Amino acid sequence: MNQSLLPEQHTAKSLANLLQRVSQEDRLAFSELYEATHRKLFGVVYRILKNQSVSEDVLQEVYLKIWDKASSFDASLASPITWMVTIARNRTIDEVRKNTLPDSEIDVDFDLIADDSMAPDDFFIKSQDLLKLEACLDGLESPRAEMVKAAYLDGFSRQELAERFEQPLGTIKTWLHRSIKQLQGCMNL
């Protein structure tokens, strides 16, 4: 097998290329995209659901959505993996809202969970982006940074945020919307 096709060798550019090909219904590209990203996306889903079989089902739905929405990917707005993680996170939160999860399983196939190791240049780019994101989060009014982290990293629903921050649901939605717009503006500087 060509070394450049191994999952750990994919860069943002190669993943964007695969997504572009997937948007043209290229099944081989979709297979390669899945092979390159399924462990990471499973890790995102599993960290929230903590149930292997439900996580696997949700992951299938995530890839169906990626197949359907590949043409809407815009590399100027997000990296390919960020775009796919957002789809996975949103679908997982929808599953949590259904409130139909069986108890967490003890027996987990940890080979499916993402290996967070990355190439040195990817690590440098990611660390620079994280530093910038942290600086942008620091620029948000209190307690909005904490709210954004709770929503987008911990999977809190809008209702849970309203209860946690003792604010009306409409206020939470407005704060999140404005905070995300502010973060996008900050990150694009």
UniProtKB/TrEMBL annotation:
SUPFAM superfamilies hit by this protein: Sigma2 domain of RNA polymerase sigma factors (SSF88946), Sigma3 and sigma4 domains of RNA polymerase sigma factors (SSF88659)
Domain of life: Bacteria
Family: Belongs to the sigma-70 factor family. ECF subfamily.
Alphabetically ordered keywords of this record: Sigma factor, Transcription, Transcription regulation
Residue ranges occupied by any RNA polymerase sigma-70 region domain in the UniProt entry: 33-100
Gene3D superfamilies: 1.10.1740.10, Winged helix-like DNA-binding domain superfamily/Winged helix DNA-binding domain
Domain called RNA polymerase sigma factor 70 region 4 type: residue spans: 131-183
Signal peptide: none
Organism: Marinomonas rhodophyticola
Name by which UniProt lists this protein: Sigma-70 family RNA polymerase sigma factor
